Amino acid sequence: MSEIDYLGLDGNTLRTFLAVLEESSVSKAAARLGVSQSAVSHTLDKLRQVFNDSLFEREGRGIVATAKARSMYEPIASILGDLRSLTYESDFDARLAPLEFTIATNDFPLQLIFPPLLRGLHADGIDPVLRFIPSGVPSANLSRASRCQFLITPAPPNGKGIIREPLLESKMMCFYDAAIRNPPKTWQQFVDSRYAEVRFSDTESSIMVLPSINTSDLKEPTITVPNFSSLAALVKGTDLITTQLGLMKQGLLHELDSTPLPVNTDPLTLYLAWHQRDHDDPAHGWFRKRIIETASSMFTGKRI
Known about the structure:
Elements: H1 3-7, H2 11-23, H3 26-33, H4 37-51, E1 56-59, E2 62-65, H5 67-71, H6 73-85, E3 100-104, H7 107-123, E4 129-133, H8 142-145, E5 150-153, E6 162-170, E7 172-176, H9 187-192, E8 196-198, E9 223-225, H10 231-235, E10 242-245, E11 257-260, E12 268-275, H11 282-299
Parallel strand pairs: 3-4, 3-5, 8-9
Antiparallel strand pairs: 1-2, 5-12, 6-12, 7-10, 7-11
């Protein structure tokens, strides 16, 4: 690489590259950055010449990153983090600082934690820009965890540089409609029941995080859905059961009846996780404190 190549890599160029990598789309990256698609394409052409790599290739109607592009994520994110640190001031004011975060979470934590959090921030005159993406089971997909500044999950990845903080703790419960059926009293009754399951992909399901249980006895679910929001409507009025966090009784599954599982299980912890590269960012530190405080204020001293 010639000297003029790497000296021409400014912060905006690198930021554009990360946006395309995270969005897997030129148009979405352009909308996120508030620039034209042609501007993003021009920047990518420049980067392809610098790195002598196509970086992104068409696949169907979308694009996928090359191995070279994926390998560049961490070092470029680190460079941008170092550039941000040069502008940090000792007195951080959330009302003046730009607050923009990508948060990987499933619909249950999103609907439980963020509505009261955002109402509180709005009352204080603070309105961050937030992008939510599905987290699935990130321990099975570390690349998804690298696309965000925050990750909320019961199964944080164990990758290098990942920091995690417990948010909430809850036991898994069996949810059902008491007007239609009785709860399963034994493990065999549980195994024999028709059940609904959340599957984030062909290889990731909510049952994967069920602690202290050998799930190999379970039959294939009668119904699978891509998120938690549709479970209550599908289970209501049927003999289906679903096994989810007891905390959902206070949110998405409040219409259903619930009972402890017919076997003893350990509680499940919901974690807030982030990468070490973001740890010392004042805006990041301020916002993660608000997330933790919101979760704590909702369930202080409670294990559900």
